[in-house]
Amino acid sequence: MSDELTHLNSAGQANMVDVTGRDITVRIADTSAHVFLSPLAVGLLRDGTTPKGDVLTTARIAGIMAAKKTSELIPLCHPIAINKISIELEITDSGVAILAQVITSDRTGVEMEALTAVSVAGLTIIDMVKALDPMASISDIRIDSKSGGKSGDWKRA
């Protein structure tokens, strides 16, 4: 992996990386996050009785929509063709664990799309339970693994 900052031009100004010469390869990114919630909010999620409706389905859809909009949100992120987005949400004793996988066949990776998916899914959960739990928080937004492209495969230890 190079230590060179590829998003800076020769004058040190931010610019979008030219990926024209890169090979089109299958690229996969797996990310995760956790939303910490009060026992009351966790109980209502488990019972399916939150006042705003189906929190997990809404969060999943929001995450999928967000991944598709990533290049509109992150200034130097390339618009890419996304082949698949999957988001899993699991209610835990401390809140909701969120996992996302994004797959493309393109010239650049999908890490930012997968990170955006878990972030917006988490924000959606908080939006839907904030009246019940104003202390809700999102933590540990991270890349767990990636594959494809010039830099190859990587997995969090």
UniProtKB/TrEMBL annotation:
<dbReference type="InterPro" id="IPR050105">
    <property type="entry name" value="MoCo_biosynth_MoaA/MoaC"/>
</dbReference>
<dbReference type="InterPro" id="IPR047594">
    <property type="entry name" value="MoaC_bact/euk"/>
</dbReference>
<dbReference type="InterPro" id="IPR002820">
    <property type="entry name" value="Mopterin_CF_biosynth-C_dom"/>
</dbReference>
<protein>
    <recommendedName>
        <fullName>cyclic pyranopterin monophosphate synthase</fullName>
        <ecNumber>4.6.1.17</ecNumber>
    </recommendedName>
</protein>
<dbReference type="GO" id="GO:0006777">
    <property type="term" value="P:Mo-molybdopterin cofactor biosynthetic process"/>
</dbReference>
<dbReference type="GO" id="GO:0061799">
    <property type="term" value="F:cyclic pyranopterin monophosphate synthase activity"/>
</dbReference>
<comment type="pathway">
    <text>Cofactor biosynthesis; molybdopterin biosynthesis.</text>
</comment>
<feature type="domain" description="Molybdopterin cofactor biosynthesis C (MoaC)">
    <location>
        <begin position="16"/>
        <end position="149"/>
    </location>
</feature>
<dbReference type="Pfam" id="PF01967">
    <property type="entry name" value="MoaC"/>
</dbReference>
<keyword id="KW-0456">Lyase</keyword>
<dbReference type="InterPro" id="IPR023045">
    <property type="entry name" value="MoaC"/>
</dbReference>
<keyword id="KW-0501">Molybdenum cofactor biosynthesis</keyword>
<dbReference type="InterPro" id="IPR036522">
    <property type="entry name" value="MoaC_sf"/>
</dbReference>
